[in-house]
């Protein structure tokens, strides 16, 4: 099969999977009538637990090739890149729409640049600074254009912004500290390392005391598990395959596809999406493009 077709196929699949993760969070927390079922802590913990169990068979092989002093950075990557963001996104979606959450998620590449400059000594060009400013302006317009975010609910967008900041820090840390470790090894060790804390969260928040045999709880648990198995573990493996086949530059373009899938799900789910929000998202993506234009030329 043509290599280009395979790469574009993976691109589309990843955009759909990660773009759909925001609606899966909603399905985990609410039923068809928008009544609460599982708490955001339950959904996030089940997501981490299921992704850890899926990667568990690869743990022994992965541990053999990673130096002991490096494992701590791999485990930290799991916390920064998966555990904390999973909870932050779910908490945010208790008050704001999945479409808005998916759109704000596109700030991640900008926070890679910002955190790299602030914490990792990465050089920043004028193109990158211009892109960051435009992206921040677009996010401000996005918040202004969203009629469902007002008053106290506006603060919940901060959870999404914090999650994307953690993503940015994690990307830089992996680049600086884990360049010699394969992506599959990072995923296997990081995700399985999150099994114990995920179990602790489920036990301490009373998940197992819920009426789990009821249909709504079964469906919410399934949605949360799919989020972990497909949206975290499988998507990570597919992303690594895409990086190897097409390079990191092409793989990073998934950032552009995710928010549009999230918006389509939002429309299907009855969320309000305006033309001004689409314009704001395009401004954010323009900022992402300009911020990465120097790297693309290289």
Task: Describe the structure in your own words.
This protein is mainly alpha-helical. Helices cover 77% and strands 0% of the residues. It has 14 helices and no strands. The protein has helices at residues 3-29, 40-55, 59-64, 68-92, 98-104, 108-119, 126-145, 157-177, 183-192, 195-204, 215-246, 248-251, 254-268, 275-297. It is globular.
Question: What can be said about this structure in brief?
Answer:
This protein is 77% helix and 0% strand. The protein is mostly helical.
Keywords:
mainly alpha, about 300 residues, single chain
Mean pLDDT: 88
N-to-C span: 29 Å
Bulk shape: globular
Low-confidence stretches: none
Strand content: under 5%
Q: How would a crystallographer describe the biggest sheet? A: none
Order of helices and strands: HHHHHHHHHHHHHH
**Count of alpha and pi helical runs:** 14
Extended strand count: 0
Helix/strand-derived class? mainly alpha
Helix content: over 70%
Write down the Rg: 19 Å
Secondary-structure blueprint:
Elements: H1 3-29, H2 40-55, H3 59-64, H4 68-92, H5 98-104, H6 108-119, H7 126-145, H8 157-177, H9 183-192, H10 195-204, H11 215-246, H12 248-251, H13 254-268, H14 275-297
